[in-house]
Write a structure and sequence with these properties.
It contains 16 helices and twelve strands. By secondary structure, it is of the alpha/beta class.
Length: about 400
Amino acid sequence: MKYLVVLYDGMADYPVPELNGKTPMEVANKPNFDALGKKGTVGIVKTVADSLKPGSDVANLSALGYDAEKCYTGRSPLEAVSIGVELNDDDVTMRCNVVTLSDEENYEDKTMVDYSAGDISSEEAAEIIKTVEEHFGNDIYKFYNGVSYRHCLVWHCGTTDLGDMTPPHDISGRVIGEYLSQSENAKELIAMMKESYGLLKNHPVNLKRIAEGKKPANSIWLWGEGTKPALEAFETKFGLKGSIISAVDLLKGIGGCAKMNTPEVEGATGYIDTNFAGKAQAAVDEFRNGQDFVYIHIEATDECGHRHEPENKVKAIEIIDREVLPVVLEELEKFDDYKIMILPDHPTPIVTMTHARDPVPFMIYHKNGEKQGVETVTEATAKSTGVYFDSGVELMKYFLDK
């Protein structure tokens, strides 16, 4: 038996005015997804416990069958593991975004123009983080570059009691002052963020980007604090050799902590320009190399939600249906039996541009166990079936017949 999960990050949505009151799932032309849904089990699943925030970290752990209330220690430690950072038990890690802020004189009056600094390249961002490390790095703080706008701070002997360190993608287009933690423990971190604006405003990378009509990475933004993670190995937990295919450090970090394969895919960006076909081929290669379980994580749908790009969110769903599903399904048909599950980790509604904790639709197709499903898989049709799982842990048990 082979198992495939295709995770469309943030795909679920609310009705979108620009889409005539429909959701991207309702508008998208997705014949392969819907063909599976007609013969599969369709329902909804609660991927985020009430006690946790609806982040991709918590929700993907849940979709993978891990109880985040028991094993979650923060987002940034997972990303740190992905980029090869060795953590001590007393280290605290933080996500360090490079962002674009507006140019008001007082830091508190600036607006979050772009949480991704205009999709800055990893090469450009590495130069930015190098400058940040040279300026702020010491025996207590050390900065590590990651992918695109996503980087890492390791705070030796730090604390996670920092008040509310708001994710930058939650405040797109908003004045940042009220979202800066007032905790005394966060005082030095906030001071670094403020000082970084002056440090980076005229950085050579940013001057070049501005000259090219691109957004500058003119500030760091610290959030997502956590401590050294400890996940049970996926094979130990489920008895299956597993792989995660993703462009983002978070998912690679989860895979690394769970002792899963995390192959690199050239051209995987985490946005709608990602190498969709390359991800599909990587999944095929993992199955051919003897893996039992492959988890394809696709970030594009989430990014389009954060950026208020309804047309691109629809487009991303359609590209996955056209360039990913046919390739992996053709390979799976070579095996005597297989199951495929398609779902988002959480909603990222266009109208709010941030994550929501609503239960999400899922579809499970079993080659040798076809059922009567729905004509088209959407948020509404999934809810209408009455099939409901209270957690991703229970859904994964069902998916794997555990």
